[in-house]
Amino acid sequence: EARGVNYRALSTLFELLEARGPEVEVRLEVSMLEIYNEMVRDLLKGKITDRTQPLEIKHTKLPHGDVSVSVKDIVTQEVRNVDEVNHVLAKGHRNRATASNQVNEHSSRSHAIVSVTLHLNNTATQVHSTSKMHLVDLAGSERLAKTESMSERLKEAQAIN
Fold first, then answer.
1. What one-character-per-residue DSSP string does 30-48 give?
2. What are the pLDDT digits (tens) for 7-53?
3. CATH classification at residue 25
4. Does residue 96 fall inside a structural domain?
5. Residue 120 resides in a domain
6. Among 47, 77, 78, 82, which has the minimal tally of Cβ within 10 Å of its Cβ?
7. How many other C-beta atoms can be found within 10 angstroms of the C-beta atom of residue 53?
8. Domain Kinesin motor spans what residues (predicted)?
9. Which pTM value belongs to this model?
10. Pairwise CA distance, residues 34 & 40, whole Å
């Protein structure tokens, strides 16, 4: 079975983490959101009513002048292996906005962002570090004549394009 880039990237990450010494404590967290019709939604929230509430984007100025962008109240789930990551990603993908058209039976109507936060703690050196990786799946750019989109699909296609 062909695996996608998210699976392969996270599998490689776990392989690299397994090669670390026992003095390195690792914690990995995953979150997943979508941008649909110009609203940000959490794909890991349990209730559909919670998922339909748009999320607030926060911009924080950092001491060295950069700006950090984060999403307020997004669900993060700790994962310990690739199987747990796959479970989280499958849940998020089930919650994505999709619709059929003449080109694809299950065309994604949204941009999806999987964020992976890696916390490392070296107990021997007392060095702590945090890294973040974002895996982005952009919605397909579709031609309306080709897909025969109507009304709601037309609004979605305009937001996607």
1. EEEEEEETTEEEETT-SSH
2. 899 999 999 998 888 999 999 999 999 988 888 889 998 766 665 67
3. 3.40.850.10
4. yes
5. yes
6. 47
7. 13
8. 1-161
9. 0.76
10. 6
Q: Is residue 67 part of a domain?
A: no
Whole-number Å distance between alpha carbons of 60 and 77: 23
For residue 73, with 0-12 CB atoms within 10 Å meaning exposed, 13-18 middle and 19 or more buried, which class applies?
Answer: exposed
CA count, 13 A, side-chain hemisphere, 121: 5
Q: Is 47 contained in some domain?
A: no
Q: pLDDT tens digit string along 50-66?
A: 656 778 888 999 888 88
Q: How many H helices and E strands in the chain?
A: 5, 9
Q: What band does 104 get if pLDDT is binned at 50, 70 and 90? A: very low
What distance in Å separates the CA atoms of residue 75 and residue 31, rounded to the nearest whole number? Answer: 6
pLDDT > 70: percent of the chain: 75
Number of domains making up the chain: 1
